[in-house]
Specification:
Pfam families: DnaJ. This is Molecular chaperone DnaJ. InterPro entries: DjlA_DnaK_co-chaperone, DnaJ_domain, DnaJ_domain_CS, J_dom_sf. By secondary structure, the protein is an all-alpha fold. 71% of the residues lie in helices and 0% in strands. It is built from five helices and no strands. Helix 2 packs antiparallel against helix 3. It is elongated.
Length: 94
């Protein structure tokens, strides 16, 4: 799975304005017309894909949920959230 936040140089709590600003900067940096590096077209596509996902609220939510399930953020925090939710359900049933 691609790491879209890293492609744009952002943290997962970035705002839409942050995402747009980072996209414009990275797209300009890696655009094949401006950058003759061999990997520039691939990096440009990576940045474009990241923006497509993170700028759409529904796609971003799905992506963030998937990241949490895969424990890509903070594994300890994610584990705490999972166990807290589980124990809340167990305690509410009693």
């Amino acid at each position: 799975m691609s790491e879209h936040y890293a492609a744009l140089g952002l943290k997962s709590d970035a705002t839409l304005a942050d995402i747009k600003r980072a996209f414009r900067q990275k797209a300009s940096q890696f655009h094949p017309d401006r950058n003759t590096a061999e990997d520039a077209p691939a990096r440009f596509r990576e940045v474009q894909e990241a923006y497509d996902v993170l700028s759409d609220e529904t796609k971003r939510k799905a992506y963030d949920d998937n990241r949490r399930r895969n424990l890509l953020d903070d594994p300890a925090q994610t584990a705490r959230e999972i166990w807290t939710a589980y124990f809340q359900q167990v305690l509410n049933r009693s």
